[in-house]
Amino acid sequence: MVVGFAFASNALFNFLVGLLVAKFLGPAEFGRFAIAAATAVLINSGGFDWIRLSAVRFYSARTRADRPQVRATLDACFAACTGIVGLAVVALIFAGLNLALTPGLLAMAAATGAFSAFYDFRTSLARARFHDGAYARIIIVKNVLGLALTVGGAWWFHSAEIALAGICLSVAGSLVSTWRTLRDSGASPRGAQRSLVGQFMGYGLPLVWASILFQLIPLINRMIVSGLYGFGETGQFSLANDLGVRILSAIASTLDVLLFQLAVRADESHGASGARAQLADNMGVVFAVILPACAGIWLILPSFQALIVPEAFRGPFAIYLTAMLPGLLAYVLLQFALAPIFQIGKRTAPMIVSALSACAADLVLIVALPHGHDGYWLALAQSGAQIVGLLVGFYLAAATKPAWPRALDILSTLVASAAMVAAVLPLRAQPPGPLVLVAEGTLGLLVYGAFAYGLDIAGLRMRLATLVKSRA
Q: What pTM does this model have?
């Protein structure tokens, strides 16, 4: 529970920092920041994420004691990838190419990608060892420093480069706070093994390639917005996408931290049949949480925009996010409901097929949709592409003959979500304000919660009874 709470609080803090940075930078400078940040995420995913995935899968307290070569190889892989990224950035800067990012912004994007990857790697080590204290400490220190350095830098200097430097420094400070705790004295660089490198890459790279392809969709779309409508419109487009992704991914990732390990344990204890049953249960829970969350975001959007979104972004924010929400729902369901089927089965290549299908759909829609005076048509293209990715992923997952959630749970979730929308919709028409926002959230939670309990969605009554019994 400590890990889940820390993960959720970190996601919430990142959301708040994103809002404040957008407020202090303004649309145009935030547009530059958003492209650099998206590039940093791409560098993180493409260069380093396979190491994080391997750490989660192959590193543990037992391997720390019995197989120090696992940690030694992970560390060596990270050092090598950092060097490769650094050399690649230097080569790009001196190549004289006409890039969307200035040399300084490109360098900071690369540094942010590497530092963020190191943060992900170290938190994964803490989770793999069930070291809740170290995990929470890394997050707390990073968030406190991020508020001071990232937000403070954006407020004082109004510079995308300085804001990115704040991210790097806040991550560095957080890692120093747990350096001794997470250090493995027996894992020297000489203990690294090439055979383990191949094993790690074979496990993680298919998931990484799929992630990169999915991230290319919003990155390419915001670059098109920048070329056609300028950095100001790019900032508008980017904030809606980034906040939507952060909110939904934060919710789904928190569930995944708690649920995926149950599927791993079921696979180890009860074999493939046990894993399939647990995965079906997990899918039902994810759907029962993410669908009403998306509906709830749309319901509170007018008040959320008026009260929380920086003034310079209001108006376009709601328009863009409304167009993007169906696609974001599809993307999150694919990543956190369907992808675990392939991960537990150790057959992750279908995720690449799904991502390629989404990229192809994005290109087709970009060409086919009528162009407007802003990036709204690109938001629709992005949403449609993500829906195609989900449909292809569902088809490929069905080919593995998995167990699915109960049809009654899916139907009950739809009914409960529809009841919530019907109850809250009249409030959405009221003038936006704090009381309306609180009323919408409270009424929505009460209505959906009552239906979820009454219909026993995803075994809610049994889960609550178990929770109460464990607390007694």
A: 0.78
